[in-house]
Amino acid sequence: MHQLRNKSIITLFALILSGVVIGVAHNRALSEGHPFVIQSVVRSAIYPAGASIHSVVSLFAQVMRVARPRSAILRENARLRKQVKLLTEENNRLRELAHESISLKKTLHLHECLGLKTISAEVIARDESSWFHTATIDRGRRAGVTPGASVVNHLGLIGQVVEADPFTAQVVALTDTSSEISALVQRSRCHGLLQGLGGNRLVLTSLPKDADVRRGDVVVSSGLGRVIPKGLVVGRIIRVSRNSIYGTTSAFVRPAVRFDQVEQVLVIKPGRGVAR
Amino acid sequence: MKRTVLPILSLMVACAIQGNLPRFVTLFGAKPNLVLVVLIAYSLASEPGFGAALGFVAGLIEGSAVGLSTGSFIVTRTITGFLAGLVTTRLFSDNPIVPVVSAAWLTLVCEVLFLLANPLASVSAAGMIILGECILNAFMTFILHFILRQFEARRKMRLVNARL
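^ Those are the sequences you sent over. The predicted structure of the assembly is below.
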């Protein structure tokens, strides 16, 4: 009994030591931007199960959306018919506007903005831990996803790829406490450092005392460091806090994208570029 | 072999399910930690050394899925697995309250240790999240314990039939 206990304690310390070594090696790999082989292997092993469960959950959600009483379906059908009529008219009008827009873009050489190389991906898992805002997407190194790549959707910037395996990649949300990016206030062009606060909040710090920032101002990525393209919408300022003692200004920002509702994303490869 | 492979497979499946838990399965902003639940459930039925080893694997799997703080995940889960195994040697009971209470306090220990290594949230916010996770994990452990007992009863029945 005594021997068994000693053996268990030795095992415990050996495993803790191994854990520390793996942790240090992982942090080093993260800071150097290299893939961490052990994690890649583990994630590749989990991926088939994760993808299968995601498919089953999606299918179930679809079935639940479709399965409704007949009266509700008929009501919705009538409403949708009306909506189709309205949308057809609107669609015709928008087609005209789209043609006009395309010709204007050509004139202004705005096609350059499409030079941003993007990869479409789907979120297959998110928030595996209560303490981090991370997600797994179904595109990895084989699709061209690399660490540091920006992740966006039609509403704005979501986060950054922190690690990429052959088939999947880990995305850290802007709202995660480990996230820090350079951003600017679109109206006044004031630069600051945008940090995640957990929950659904961000804070723009390192602003000068007299920074021209107001509630409602839109915050966009600054493009400094050439990792995240300039001009991606990050969120809107909801509160400004000025500290007269330290002479600093902080602005609390509500993200444009709710991380827990993201499903389809675009991964922008790191590089110089301006988002329009 | 089967004794090792099955828990590891269970941990992997738990991790895969964890990432696809619906949004409404939350309490005080916390989701149940299924990897931790599986780890505790298996470790409660084994010796401390095996619990620690299983905790190591659980930490590696969870850390890999999250992509951050892998070392903290491994160390905290290893200690949790060890403590769960220690509970078995000190206190064994067929009463379902034992694993449920054990799951709650082991989750508490695990998450407090994790937060000591990674101070990610304010004390009040972290307290609420840990409380929610403890309750949800205890509930999940109760369900898992019930399922495992059913399997165990069937296995014993098969053994008895085979002997007869």
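The mean pLDDT of chain B is 84. Helices of chain B lie at 2-18, 34-43, 48-66, 70-90, 97-117, 123-163.

Shout if you want it in another format.
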